[in-house]
């Protein structure tokens, strides 16, 4: 793996198998693809990522708190325990990734697409979902959506054995007929 200064990242480039040093200034990256790269730092608080692609990156337990991500893709990434609290996302995709125990609390997620990824015990508390949060072939076991309005959230093509939610905010949640009995059991309904 080649070492490179984070400050030397240039727009419209692809970086593969690079280890990036720590960055001292505010992080603003756009139009960059990172493939199988590593980062010396794990604190990306208040960063900005526009039109970026991350492929095969281990962001486990990294801190992206209060960051902005637009038109960014995570492919085959490890987002286990990653903190995306207070984020603003627009037109982002997470695909073939693991985001168990990640935190998206108090974030604004606009037009977010999830494919073939795990979000078990992930926190989505007080999240503003806008223009769709569509999850396909993904898992959300015990995901926590407390105090989040679930209008435009589509879990119908994904799996969960239970999700945590605020009953008055469930209106508009899109699920399939097999998932309905799981949610109804939270209201004491017995289905035979």
Automatic annotation (TrEMBL):
UniProt superkingdom: Bacteria
Cited SUPFAM superfamilies: Pentapeptide repeat-like (SSF141571)
InterPro entries named among the record's database cross-references: 5peptide_repeat, PA_immunity-related
Signal peptide positions (record): none
Entry-linked Pfam families: Pentapeptide_4
Protein's name in the database: Pentapeptide repeat-containing protein
Top-level taxonomy: Bacteria, Bacillati, Bacillota, Bacilli, Lactobacillales
